[in-house]
């Protein structure tokens, strides 16, 4: 029984592996609420564009809509999650240095 549950046991090793895998997955749209990013595909009136984020050293891109049209490079903050892969953003201003 020790080989299953002990400190070096099979279940302990599987638990560690699953925790590491979860830590590497992309955050959900809900986890991004409040984060700042920048528009990489313009967001048209009534449509979707794309916003780029840098999260834990990784670049992530999400489909995004906004109340007003936003052009390439606009700085935005996530105001709501619409689905697991789509967000709503609010305009923060033009990007001065190309970074969110």
Structural class call reads: alpha+beta
Give the helix tally: 2
- The overall strand count is 5
Cα-based radius of gyration, to the nearest Å: 19 Å
- β-strand amount: 35-45%
Distance between the termini: 52 Å
The average pLDDT is: 80
Query: Biggest β-sheet: count, sense, barrel?
Result: 5 strands, mixed, barrel
Low-confidence stretches: none
User: Looking across the biggest beta sheet, what order are the strands in?
Assistant: 1-2-3-5-4
What share of residues is helical? Answer: 10-25%
Write down the overall geometry: elongated
Q: Please write the string of helix (H) and strand (E) elements.
A: HHEEEEE
Descriptive notes:
- The protein is of the alpha+beta class and 100 residues long.
- Helix content is 19%, strand content 41%.
- It contains two helices and five strands, in the order H-H-E-E-E-E-E.
- The protein has helices spanning 2-5, 10-24; strands at residues 36-41, 49-55, 58-66, 74-83, 86-94.
- Strands 1-2-3-5-4 form a five-stranded mixed β-barrel.
- Strand 1 (36-41) and strand 2 form a beta hairpin.
- The termini are far apart.
- The mean pLDDT is 80.
């Amino acid at each position: 029984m020790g080989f299953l549950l002990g400190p070096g046991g099979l279940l302990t090793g599987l638990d560690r592996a699953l925790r590491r895998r979860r830590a590497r997955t992309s955050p959900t749209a809900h986890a991004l609420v409040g984060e700042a990013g920048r528009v990489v595909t313009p967001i048209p009136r009534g449509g979707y564009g794309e916003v780029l984020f840098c999260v834990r050293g990784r670049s992530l891109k999400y489909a995004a809509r906004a109340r007003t049209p936003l052009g390439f490079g606009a700085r935005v903050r996530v105001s709501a999650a619409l689905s697991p892969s789509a967000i709503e953003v609010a305009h923060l201003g033009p990007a001065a240095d190309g970074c969110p």
